[in-house]
Amino acid sequence: MSESDNSIDVTEIGELTPPDRTLMGPGPSDVHSRVLRAMSTPLVGHLDPSFVEIMNEVQELLRYTFRTDNQWTLPVSGTGSAAMEAAIGNVVEPGDTMLVPTNGYFGGRMASMARRAGGEVAEVSAPWGEPLDPNDVADALAEHDPDVFGFVHAETSTGVLQPDVPELTAAAHDHDALVIADTVTSLGGVELRVDEWGIDVAYSGPQKCLSCPPGASPLTLSDTAMEKVLGREDEPRSWYLDLSLLEGYWGDERAYHHTAPVTNVYALREALRLVAEEGIEQRWERHERLAGALKAGVEGMGLEMNAPEEYWLPSLNAVRVPEDVDDGAVCAELLERYDLEVASGLGDLDGEIFRIGCMGYSARPQNVIYTVTALGDVLESMGADVDPGAGVTAARNTLE
């Protein structure tokens, strides 16, 4: 940029040419061409009658995917963290107590958001890599008598799927606590039944098992949860994420609140159409089958999963890093050599696991074989004690 005229030589920047990666990390996942095409369709106003109809369709598709009849089901304008903050920041009032888990990175984020909302935080403990024990939850509920109980259904940082969800929600309701579920890495990928399981509030992200670019994030609230939101004495600390105001836009009135990310809503609508076309239960089965082949492949080459079989999370496979191997160097080499994205660990598991997603459109046979092949090759080249050929054979056998 010239100091004299503040001009810029656009030829130095050039056209946008991001690399063509295979996305097998913890998100985002690969996006179907239909979703990308939806984003390139003509822009309309966020109060245009045609967009209002699209809003209705997105809400109905979200209810199908969440397995809920909740009226208050909508995409929050923002990433999954925006939906998370909308859930916690509206339901948790100043002086409320929220019981949160300690068994992963995103339980810690729940605690942080609850404190920022003015709540008191109590914890129910479990080691990283293990789910919450229903008995421990029951004890913590009895000890702290919280107003809100939060849990992570699919913990992205550990590869653990929380079982016994109806047991947890029933215990919370016995103490008149509302239940908030983090379903960021489970919605559209593993079994989730919001109404049947007694979940009051669930939030998610579009870029995981829904295979949609981030920007419009699913959220659903029961009538009981929304009654608490609408009956608050103090306004939520965020104007932008105030559900009592968003209700005017996403409810019957369709009154202006903010400019919705129109193209992101287009994308979410098409991603949810793909979910409905496949069938939600068939989609759950596909994720389990394809991730099972990925799991067989990494175990076949000699690696270990972080989570035991009974807690294994198909959509996010946490794989132990072999001894004397630099996980960051492996991830970098996979990008350089194969244009393949996987991720390292977070928090307490930093440096100890690879996080390999198998989500949405990324959960395809060719991606599974490609990932097992590439990971085995890179690890072997770095001196790890692995058998790449055995891993590929195990993955193929499982697929067949």
TrEMBL record:
The keyword Lyase does not apply. GO terms for biological process: glycine biosynthetic process, by transamination of glyoxylate. GO terms for molecular function: alanine-glyoxylate transaminase activity; L-serine-pyruvate transaminase activity. Its cofactor is pyridoxal 5'-phosphate. It comes from Natronococcus occultus SP4. It comes from the Archaea. Residues 44-345 form the Aminotransferase class V domain. This is Serine-pyruvate aminotransferase/archaeal aspartate aminotransferase. Its EC number is 2.6.1.44.
